[in-house]
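Here is the promised in-class demo. Please do not try to memorize the tokens; focus on the logic of going from shape to residues.
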């Protein structure tokens, strides 16, 4: 399993609405994410608009490609795009910046056994 962390930048004037939209994500979007292999998915939002996402998947490219094939993802991305700044291709799912993991507690402990 791979742990994926990414960032995006939400427009500060739209933070409240962004939070509201994520309080009740469409059930078909939730089902699509699960079917595509997105597990333990969380989003964290700072007051300056920095969005940090985290999820676990067996294969990042396969998980993104599986979502790309769904109609619900196309609708969701179109609705979410105006919330973000600096999106290449105008889509949040193509514009997130994946961060390199530099520390994980369990990995450190396992190495000491």
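The designed amino acids, position by position:
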């Amino acid at each position: 399993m791979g742990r994926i962390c990414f960032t995006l930048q939400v427009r500060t004037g739209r933070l409240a609405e962004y939070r509201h939209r994520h309080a009740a994500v469409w059930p078909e979007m939730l089902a699509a994410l699960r079917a595509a292999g997105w597990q333990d998915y969380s989003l964290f939002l700072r007051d300056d608009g920095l969005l940090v996402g985290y999820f676990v998947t067996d294969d990042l490219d396969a998980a993104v490609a599986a979502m790309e094939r769904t109609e619900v993802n196309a609708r969701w991305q179109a609705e979410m795009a105006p919330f973000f700044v600096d999106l290449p291709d105008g889509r949040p799912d193509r514009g997130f910046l994946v961060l390199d993991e530099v520390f994980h507690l369990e990995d450190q402990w396992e190495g000491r056994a």
